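Why should sequence recovery work at all? Because a backbone constrains its sequence more than one might expect. Tight turns favour small or flexible residues, buried strands favour hydrophobic ones, and helices have their own preferences. The token representation captures these environments compactly. In the example below, the structure is given first.
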């Protein structure tokens, strides 16, 4: 089992929240809960209201988009990667479904704790927005969407 300090270390090393003071990362980890999902289990469901984000602690999660009745895997997320944050920030529903690819352990971050961190630290907000822009570009590439 991963300790609170280890969770904070994974958050810091992920690049997602790099530059955030350790005490803030520990607070975020303390406000969060750890969950384990078995192979194929749904972590977030496309269309659901976003009340949490997740950071992968171990294992991998696949992100799948359903369009025109077909489901396409658009990303594969590993340790330290974030899922569900775009919906938290935008206020819209989850835009895709995330499923465990094998056993995956995640840190579930409540909406309030995540948004409070972003509101209190401009560096955290900038880092998360940069990370999400890269994720979106990866998803668009996987879907064959080109940029002009």
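From this structural description, the recovered sequence reads:
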């Amino acid at each position: 089992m991963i300790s609170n300090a280890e969770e904070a270390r994974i958050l810091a090393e992920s690049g997602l929240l790099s530059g955030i003071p350790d005490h803030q990362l520990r607070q975020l980890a303390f406000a969060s809960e750890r969950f384990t999902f078995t192979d194929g289990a749904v972590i977030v469901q496309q269309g659901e209201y976003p009340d949490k984000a997740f950071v992968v602690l171990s294992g991998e999660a696949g992100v799948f988009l359903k369009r025109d009745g077909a489901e396409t895997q658009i990303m594969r997320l590993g340790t330290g990667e974030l899922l569900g944050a775009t919906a938290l920030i935008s206020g819209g529903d989850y835009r895709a479904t995330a499923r465990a690819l094998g056993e995956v352990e995640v840190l579930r971050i409540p909406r309030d704790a995540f948004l409070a961190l972003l509101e209190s630290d401009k560096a955290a907000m900038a880092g998360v927005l940069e990370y999400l822009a890269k994720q979106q570009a990866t998803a668009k590439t996987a879907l064959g969407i080109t940029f002009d």
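A few observations help interpret the result. The chain is about 40% helix and 30% strand.
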